[in-house]
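Hi V.,

You were right to ask for the full record rather than a summary. Here it is.
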Amino acid sequence: MHKLKGKRVAILVADGFEESEFLEPKRRLEEEGAKVDVISLASDKVRSTRGHDWAQDFSVDVALADADHRKYNSLMLPGGVYNPDTLRGNEMALEFVKAFFSGKKQRPVAAICHAPQILISADLVRGRTMTSFSSIRKDLENAGANWVDKEVVVDQGLVTSRSPKDIEAFNQQMIEEFCEGTHRL
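Predicted structure:
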């Protein structure tokens, strides 16, 4: 218990993130002792979805404009349809994500469902073995990733998963990688 005590995790979201892909990982990270900050383009509230329907609002802890990537040990990216589409079109969001992959050491990053679209736009998937929601398989392959159909895949600290039905396996691997810390590239 409390494997992540003393670790800080950023969850980067925009309106339209899949609620279950946010709530369950956040809950597990906090159960393991991590300090979790919700970071968003918005500065106060961000709205989730359940499928294609709008759901509840959640408080933002840190506006992306004020977020310092150096304060975080790890990054989690929930999916959803709208959320990744917004984030991948925002240069500040892409720079924040890229910072976790910079230098000779990569900090752990977990991305589920459609969230790997953000990694594609940040040009971070070439040569990586990954999984995702099936509809973005070709996008990942065209960007140079090796796509596999598994509930969860780990490649040098990058954890990817297909959908909410794989959330338990995703959470388990995410916590394991976040415990391990940085990976040499």
